[in-house]
């Protein structure tokens, strides 16, 4: 089975190809491809009964390692960040892989110490089906719809969760009823609550509450959601056009530096924001906003600073940062795109 890769290849993730891959390169594996996860330096693939890690592994570039789990367990889902890869397996266990040291360890059963006795008795510790990780935190989802901020269970009374996602400093989940909840840092509008405040616990994204959301994805500081009717919504920090919405901000506006103490409330858009003496470029959408597409959207995936969607007609479109060919077009042709453009 095969898939295609484009973007940064400076660590040798795809052997025999240049540092920047702007024309999608075909990679073939034995057996069905179950899951793929990319970081800046490592490409991780589940194919058949094994996992393959390519790129910067064991402190060297151009390395390829194939990993098998013990006790006949098969990997079913993985998620990678710069420092680690989390793996869920067919037996419901969760593993932690370190590319730097090429070591794999099984995580112990997730604790129920933070739950009351009735809740503790109902926690499904033994069937993790999906994981998501960043360098700031990790999530796991059980077959019964429980979420863990590894290793502790997240108390969500009455909610059955079907999907989870980690950003750089925030998290998102999708429920069986099609509701989206977010929490963590909100400094770039990434929580979608119409403000820039943090949330310690999952909070409903009310702007999407009247829609049946079927797919979510989280980038570094932005998010995307697809509804059952095929509509695409994005929100958060649009530094390089990854929201797919015209920011209408001039270059002069990019140099605007409001005081660090200034707090901005918004129901739709914050144009340029300065916090902690950092310069912010682009727009910040504090609430989910619709994105124009040429056909209904069936899936979406967010990179750190770009977004890619699959349309019902089978075409793939992307927007955002393209310095390394992430949007499947040469950087000299387009360094960034604020609109969705069709992949070559």
UniProtKB/TrEMBL annotation:
Return the Pfam families for the record: RCC1, RCC1_2
Residue stretches of each RCC repeat:
178-229, 230-313
| Highest rank taxon of the organism | Eukaryota
Q: Which PROSITE patterns match?
A: RCC1_2 (PS00626), RCC1_3 (PS50012)
Question: What is the protein named?
Answer: RCC1 domain-containing protein 1 isoform X2
What organism, scientifically named, is this protein from? Answer: Frankliniella occidentalis (Western flower thrips)
């Amino acid at each position: 089975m095969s898939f295609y890769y484009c973007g940064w290849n400076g660590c040798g993730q795809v052997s025999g190809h240049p540092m920047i891959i702007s024309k999608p390169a075909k990679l073939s594996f034995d057996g069905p491809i179950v899951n793929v996860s990319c970081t800046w330096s490592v490409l991780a693939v589940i194919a058949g009964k094994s996992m393959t890690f390519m790129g910067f592994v064991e402190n060297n570039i151009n390395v390829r390692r194939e990993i098998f789990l013990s006790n006949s367990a098969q990997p079913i889902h993985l998620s990678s960040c710069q420092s680690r890869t989390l793996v869920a397996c067919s037996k419901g266990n969760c593993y932690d892989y370190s590319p730097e040291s090429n070591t794999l360890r099984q995580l112990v059963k997730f604790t129920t110490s933070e739950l009351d006795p009735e809740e503790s008795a109902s926690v499904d510790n033994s069937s993790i089906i999906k994981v998501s990780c960043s360098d700031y935190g990790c999530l796991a989802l059980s077959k019964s719809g429980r979420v863990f901020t590894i290793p502790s269970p997240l108390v969500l009374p009455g909610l059955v969760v079907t999907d989870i996602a980690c950003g750089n400093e925030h998290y998102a989940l999708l429920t069986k009823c099609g509701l989206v909840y977010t929490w963590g840092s909100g400094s770039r509008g990434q929580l979608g609550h119409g403000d820039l405040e943090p949330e310690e616990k999952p909070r409903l994204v009310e702007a999407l509450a009247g829609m049946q959301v079927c797919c979510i994805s989280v980038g570094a500081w932005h998010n995307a959601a697809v509804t059952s009717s095929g509509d695409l919504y994005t929100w958060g920090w649009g530094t390089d056009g990854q929201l797919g919405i015209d920011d209408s901000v001039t270059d002069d506006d990019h140099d605007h530096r409001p005081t660090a103490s200034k707090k901005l409330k918004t129901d739709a858009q914050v144009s340029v924001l300065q916090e902690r003496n950092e310069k912010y470029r682009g727009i910040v959408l504090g609430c989910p906003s619709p994105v124009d597409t040429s056909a209904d959207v069936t899936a979406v995936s967010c990179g750190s600073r770009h977004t890619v969607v699959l349309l019902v007609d089978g075409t793939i479109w992307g927007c955002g940062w393209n310095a390394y060919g992430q949007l499947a077009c040469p950087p000299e042709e387009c360094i960034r795109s604020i609109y969705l453009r069709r992949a070559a």
